[in-house]
Amino acid sequence: MLNTTDPTSTLTTVRADWRGWAALAVLMLPVLLVSVDNTVLSFALPAIALDLEPTSIQQLWIIDAYPLVLASLLVTMGTLGDRFGRRRMLLIGATGFALVSALAAFAPSATLLIAARALMGVFGAMLMPSTLSSLRAIFRDRDQRRVAIAVWAAGFSAGSALGPIVGGILLEHFAWGSVFLLSVPVLIPLLVLAPLLVPESRDPNPGRVDLISIGLSLATMIPIVYGIKELAVEGIASPAPVLFAVGLLFGALFVRRQLRLPVPMLDMSLFRQGTFSGAIVVNLLSVVGLVGFLYFVAQHLQLVVGLTPLQAGLALVPGLVAMIFSGLLVVPVARRHPARVIVPAALGFSVVAYIMVAFGTAELPILVTAFVALGIGIGAAETVSNELILSSAPSAKAGAASAVSETAYELGAVLGTAILGGILTALYRAQLVLPAGLPDAAADAARETLAGAVAASETLPADVGAALRDAAAHAFDSGVVVTALIGAVLIVVAGVVAATTLGASRGASKS
Q1: Cβ(476)–Cβ(299) below 8 Å
Q2: Residue 352 pLDDT more than 90?
Q3: Which of 70, 212, 294, 377 has the fewest other C-beta atoms within 10 Å?
Q4: Are residues 180 and 101 in contact, defined by beta-carbon separation less than 8 angstroms?
Q5: CA distance 28 to 421
Q6: What domain count does the chain have?
Q7: Where residue 489 sits, what CATH number does that domain have?
Q8: How far apart are the first and last CA of the chain?
Q9: Choice between 497 and 63, residue whose per-residue pLDDT is larger
Q10: Per-residue DSSP letters for 265-327?
Q11: 3-state secondary structure of 436
């Protein structure tokens, strides 16, 4: 295998041997873990809501605390990986992630579960840039790298496919905390095999660790993402405008500092490339669409249709399989056709998916078919855009470039839940018409979340409980219509960005 400790090597056309592909298999373990964790949590949320009784805001934070912290730290951790070694950061992150996941499994309250999820985000930020940037170092041949990135992207989809099935089995036989214990058997093989198979790589000319830049990056991301959450849930009267202003101010200071430093933490010249910036936006909006779709479909299948977590997971498997295959099948297509054509065409399938949900019935076959269409679009678009991000960046800056890509992915996960989930929550509350004669406690629970309404209905007389469930289901599904249309618009925007920024680059060249 090519000596990956020297990112400046001119042997850029040397093809990786079997050790490179074995290293890829090892790097798939944390990728699978993160995607399993995200999907499992969506399906475990109803059980968590029934057990810990979180408020609607806490329920969103249970999902968002992890990607919020992770997104805030990805650029920092990616840059530290470039300096101190990407494999080293991978191993530290794996160890911490496994330990904190075990703590999250036994959280006795919503507050402590949110805290554990936030700490998982710290270690998760060490994992993800290391996996993608290591691929840039291992696979110098662009055709091989494109296949490796397709496998990397398919790993997210495969984890998403395994998450509902494995999680469904666990949730039917054990408490919800069991879903967090999945990280332990996944990360132990990583800790054993990574030192043997994954080569260490780093930037040969790293800058110093700039604590001011790290602080500015955190001060930028946290207020903006928190402001989005507040705006989605509480409206314009919330502190969101102030939070946006604070985040943008620190963001401007961060950019100014990076432009003035001789060796910046984040090379801002990357964003002057239309292909790099366009691919980042496509990643962001695609993930918003995917996570937002999963947020309301997982709840509809379990709380409205009445499926068990396992049954709901199996219902989404065809779409997740479609996502895997579309990511792999787009590789030979990308060699012959420009990204500005492939990505918008792929995202067209995702737009169709949201339109089906908005204007079709909420029957199970419609939802399954819609998710297949969504998976085709997201799988192909993510593979092409991630490859363009890595190819646009110098090899020595692979960690920073990967961190920006992962930041877009995780920020998209936050926005998918905060924007689409928050809008859905607001619409649910606005359209919920409670039956007469409800006890105050049941009424308050029903107004908070759909899960609260279902739980409250089980404590009421049969006729009143049925009326409450019907009212909550109607309010929820009415909100889904508007939310789906907003999701379709976001995917259309992603397609327009791809068509106008990704250029005509094909994969024939080596880089």
Answers
A1: yes
A2: yes
A3: 212
A4: yes
A5: 29
A6: 2
A7: 1.20.1250.20
A8: 17
A9: 497
A10: SS-GGGGGSHHHHHHHHHHHHHHHHHHHHHHHHHHIIIIIS---HHHHHHHHHHHHHHHHHHH
A11: coil
Residues 125 and 225 in one domain: no
> Cα–Cα distance between 262 and 283 in angstroms, integer?
29
Kindly state whether residues 336 and 444 are assigned to the same domain.
yes
Q: Are residues 273 and 243 in the same domain?
A: no
Residues 374, 243 share a domain: no
Q: Which domain holds residue 234?
A: 210-264
Same domain, 315 and 393: yes
Assess if residue 175 is contained within a domain: yes
Same domain, 244 and 324: no
Q: Is the pLDDT of residue 12 over 70?
A: no
- pLDDT at site 509: 39
Let me know: does 74 contact 400? Beta carbons within 8 Å: no
Tokens at 251, concatenated? 């963001």
Pair of tokens at residue 508: 């024939």
pLDDT at 504 over 60: no
Q: What percent of the chain has pLDDT over 90?
A: 11
Q: Which residues, 6 or more positions from 162, have their beta carbon under 8 angstroms from its beta carbon?
A: 32, 36
Confidence of residue 248 (pLDDT cuts 50, 70, 90): very high
pLDDT of residue 82: 75
Which position has the higher pLDDT, 484 or 8?
484
Q: How far apart are CA 274 and CA 174, in angstroms?
A: 49
In a domain, 149, yes or no: yes
Statement: residue 506 has pLDDT above 70:
no
User: Tens digits of per-residue pLDDT, 201-233?
Assistant: 777 666 667 788 888 888 887 787 777 767 766
Domain boundary among 264, 280, 301: 264
pLDDT at 489: 92
The count of residues in the chain is 511
- Report how far apart, in Å, the C-alpha atoms of 375 and of each of 322, 472, 481 are: 6, 29, 19
C-alpha of 229 from chain center: 16
| Whether 489 and 457 share a structural domain | yes
The gap from C-alpha 93 to its chain's centroid, in whole angstroms, comes to 18
Q: Are both 37 and 168 inside the same structural domain?
A: yes
Whether 433 is in a domain gets the answer yes
pLDDT grade for 235, boundaries at 50, 70 and 90: low
Q: How far is 413 from 229, CA to CA, in rounded Å? A: 12
Q: CA of 404: how far to CAs of 93, 198, 284, 386, in Å?
A: 18, 22, 10, 11
Q: How far apart are CA 228 and CA 422, in angstroms?
A: 9
Q: Which of 22-36, 267-281, 391-405 has the lowest mean pLDDT?
A: 391-405
Q: What is the pLDDT of residue 8?
A: 39
